[in-house]
Amino acid sequence: MVWFPEYTKLVSTKEYEAQTELIANKTYNGFAFNTSVENVHWIDSFFKNCSFHNLTFSHVTFDNCIIHEVRFEIIKSSRTYFKNSIIKDSRFDAF
Length: 95
Fold this sequence. Notes:
Order of helices and strands: HEEEEEEEEEE
Largest sheet: 6 strands, parallel
Distance between the termini: 47 Å
Strand content: over 45%
Shape: elongated
């Protein structure tokens, strides 16, 4: 038997995961991301010469992605993961 607060947390987590936007096998070339990204799971995607600037990542996963010549500038991040991804010639700037 699950105690009530634990059960509430479990249900809340499952609801959040059900609303996750899955983006698979997408290529971004020269794209500028300038709005916050929340609850997104990129799978097998390719990012080349892109920029993520002045935004927030919240619950974002890059899974088996290739990130090449990408700039991450002025990023606030919570629960952001790079799983089995390749990051090459990219820049992470913190202010």
